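Training component of the fellowship. As part of building independent skills, the fellow (R.M.) carried out the full modelling exercise for a liganded target. The chosen ligand was adenosine monophosphate. The inputs are recorded below so that the supervisory panel can assess the work.
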Amino acid sequence: MQGFAERADVEDVEGFVAAHAAPLPAETVELLACAGRVLAADVAAEVDVPGFARSAMDGYAVRGEDTFGASDYDPLALRLVGESMPGRPFSGVLKPGEAVRIMTGAPIPDGADAVVMAEVAREREGLVEVREAVPPRKHVGAVGEDLRRGEVVLRAGRRLRPQDAGLLASIGVARVRCVRRPRVRLVVTGDELLPAGARPEGARIVDSNSVTLRALVARDGGETLPFALLPDREDAIRAALAAPGADVVLVSGGSSVGREDFAPRLVAELGSLDFHGVAMRPSSPAGVGRIGDALVFLLPGNPVSCLCAYEFFAGPAVRALGGRPRAWPHRRVRLPLARKLTSAVGRVDYVRVAIEDGRVVPIATSGASILSSTVRAAGCVIVPRGLEGMPEGAEVEVLLYDEDAPEART
Ligand code: AMP
Ligand code: MG
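Fellow's submitted model of the complex:
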């Protein structure tokens, strides 16, 4: 066994990953599956929405000028000549002195230009008594008031919201060009590992990394390929690394410089091992390489290191490949430190922290094997390489672990 001769700077590794994670090509996605996906090309409306002038009220379609002078004291009578319902328009042309009963969303009949609300009108013996004057265009939704034909309604790069998908439906779109989701292979090794769902027993522990990683990949817009736990055996690990079909390979465990740590050498043999060993804590044995078109991340087996190395290097790659922003996907907050935070010069520290009474409290048990530290934490603070630590009261930036506000968490 031999330690790392020298460790790369976090920024250099980040820079390398950024340079090798351009968005994947587009694929066609069914409308019903497009929410949450990243749009690959601008979408322009090929129709006006609405495509016809429509009523914004239940009431009576009229010629506005026919109602001039109408009031509570002096109602004006128009002849009721028919009705216009949503999807069933009035077929004739409205002439002076006439009214057509109309519902919200129904087409305004030809000849009409305004709607009198039902509340200020009364039907009696084939007539409509109007008790309020309406100017032309009153309560009428114009053609294209929502969207105009030719208008770009959603831009490339947009992560589609539920209402975006609804809007695409409203302009008659059935399929959407989206950035392909990165396919991620998990290569999880360790003779001591039992599959997730099993109970830890004797000297065997349960593989928690793949569970965390799978959820992180899903969060970042990737798709995890089916996988099986691997023994610490060179041939098994080589086969998993060399298998085609992945855009990203995440190796958990066996990634350092120990006797059973085959992955670094195998990555170098099958492709290139561009970095191995990073000046950071935890996850200093992390590495990055390439096999074919796939980016390969060596994540240490210790669960905190595994999470940390994913968040620093693999997460940005998965997001970028899928067309999302590389940056931290959750909120950040700036708050003062409740007590001083120590760190070694020469490496980046990833410190799990709680937030108590608006102050940032570093979590004491910070060993890389203590997964519960990340569960108790609200987020993490990244202490730059050049700092020996930070004094109590110093304002720090916390990268929160959650989508929602920390106040909404227990
Ligand atoms: P390694 O990186 O393989 O040397 O593993 C370092 C530590 O992480 C050891 O205590 C392993 O038992 C543990 N470990 C390795 N893989 C996993 C995993 N998939 N889930 C949870 N712990 C793991
Ligand atoms: Mg191992």
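The panel noted the following from the submitted structure. The two ends are 44 Å apart (CA to CA). Residues 190, 232, 253-254, 301 surround magnesium ion (ligand 2) (CB under 6 Å).
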